[in-house]
Amino acid sequence: MAIVKMNKFTLLAFESMRDKILEELQKFEGVEFINLQREELLEENQHLKDLDKDAVLSDYTKYEENLSKLKFAIEFLRNYVPPKSSLKAIKEGKREMTYSELKNKVESSNWLELYSEVKEKEQRIAAIDSEISKNKTEIEGLQPWSPLDVSFEDLKSTKYFSIFIGSVAKETEQPMLNELKETVGQVYTEIVNRDNKNTYFIVVAHKEKKEELLETLKRFGFSQLTVSYTASPLEVISGMEDEISALKEEKSKIVEEVKAYEDKLAIFEMAYDYYSSILLRMEAPKNFLKTGRVVAIAGWNTAESNEELERVIKEALGDNFYLAFEEVEEKDIEDVPIKLKNNLVAKNFENITEMYSMPRYNEIDPTPLLAPFYLVFFGMMVADAGYGALIFLGTLLIKALFNLDEGKKNMMDFFFWLSIPTMVFGVIFGSFFGDIIKLTPIIDPINDITKVLILSVGMGVVQIFFGLGIKAYMLIRNGDILGAIYDVASWIITLIGGGLFLGGSMIGLSAAAINGGKYAMIVGMLLIVLFSGRHIKNYGVRIGSGLYALYGITSYIGDLVSYTRLMALGLAGGQLANALNLIIRMFPGWAILILGPILFILFHIFNIFLSLLGAYVHTCRLQYVEYFSKFYEGGGRAFSPFKMINNYVQIKRD
């Protein structure tokens, strides 16, 4: 139950064997490379400057192009291949195979030919869509001319007459016609159509009047219709609509063909993971240094995997390598990656720690220290035996029936363990889907609200003092005994003494105990004021710093008040469940039999969602703000091993 011990390893191997060892290390999934090409590292290790920087392999671009093709094919097919139902997808999970099986499957497939086929289908669909769009635009432009019952061929200018077809804004129609009569004279105009904005017409005039006619038309914003068609507008529109129908039918056939490409999609997905893993291997040398024939590789691995790592390397390279392990030094603390390892229960709460911040290598893992509090607080906030039983059985059922990936499995395990304290506090508070089943409460949250409040704050006191105790342990572990006294013990004395002095009379303590609390509080406060700023040489500034530190007692009061949310959320969820049951009971006899079960399910699903969400968020807040602030800094980074890509396929060890 701690931070896993890490090692730094150094591997020297012949450059000709680099690709082989990278493949084996990727399958091993237990090392994280150190970038030996970093300028800061080279400055610190002058002897490394004589080595050359390694680089990605020469055919990197080819594999990158393969990945681009595969990504296109997957995205295209996912638009058409019917997806599996969510339930079926979760039940089946990802395809599982070893890397050797994946490699054989991809390399023996004809995915490039399939890609060409898919690309051809995509291009034809795109061309059809473009043609349909073009025809629709043409139809939209010709629609106003549909009343015209002559062909466009008949409306071409003749030897003696000029014919213009076009439109003007509706408001300029009459002024333009008047102007044509006055300035041009013998002109024939025919209004073909009008809409809300424009008037569509034909103008015919003698060739001699052409220039004069054009000048007048342009002055009124005449927009000339230019077409290459010979038939009438209706005939052209009808032909285009027939063409659109034919194109849609062709597209429909192509789409139906593509919908049956589920097996091809699976091949593309496997190939995508395969080539993604290869690209990752090809990028890895950007971390290495080399000579003419030897490559130098450095990285992190867990100390417990030393023998296995050496075995993997030996199987890949025989005896042609040099491997050395070094323990973490003080100068490496900021760089060493963090991997957590906890027991059956606590490991399910590692995600809570990771969301806040991973611990540094010289800190302690707070996960097992927060897990018991998280369980208790969450259970008290939801506090319904029915809800807890539903979550308990639901998580077990889902894990048994579905092939979950690691992330979903961890989530199920997380809520499985949370369901247990939820049932326990449900029994304590006498709640089973609200009051649907009458349980005799050990503590009645309505009539014994003071007890619930005291229980909530009492849990806060325990957690806060536990956090201070962890801080004291860490200081003592690091050899700072005075720090444990001045920075922790002083606060414990102050808080306990203050609690006895201010609250002793309420709980019936004797006058001697209350006075003892007062003097203990004064001693603790003096320790805080005098020694909080002990590293400051100026005594005036030191005292000022101490007084400011003492002002921090207000944050402890705020922390204790914050724990009343345990009571508030527990009461809110339980009483809302009771209110929902009351609403259902108000229905008349026949309605309750029909609507009751439906409303019961809907109402309580809603309440479960609110209760779980509220408990999750507020329990996290109590850990992060009230608890971690007492002892935990964080700032570490998670161990990120060099491993296979598992977007679509779950790759197992060979």
Proportion of residues in extended strands: 5-15%
* Largest beta-sheet details: 6 strands, antiparallel
Q: Report the strand count.
A: 14
Oligomer: single chain
Q: What is the CA–CA distance across the termini? A: 29 Å
Question: What is the 3D shape?
Answer: extended
Radius of gyration: 39 Å
Helix content: 55-70%
Report mean pLDDT, rounded to a whole number.
87
- Unreliably modeled segments: none
Q: What class, by secondary structure content?
A: alpha+beta
Number of helices: 22
Structure description:
The longest helix is centred in the C-terminal third of the chain and has 39 residues, at 589-627. The protein has 654 residues and is of the alpha+beta class. Among the domains are: 2-54 and 288-332, Alpha-Beta Plaits; 153-226, Alpha-Beta Plaits, CATH 3.30.70; 344-450 and 569-630, no CATH class; 480-562, no CATH class. The protein has helices at residues 18-28, 39-44, 60-78, 86-92, 99-107, 111-142, 173-184, 210-219, 233-259, 262-283, 306-317, 350-356, 367-382, 385-401, 406-429, 449-477, 481-503, 511-531, 539-550, 553-562, 565-585, 589-627, and strands at 2-3, 6-14, 31-33, 52-53, 95-98, 161-169, 187-194, 198-206, 223-224, 289-290, 294-302, 321-327, 340-341, 649-652.
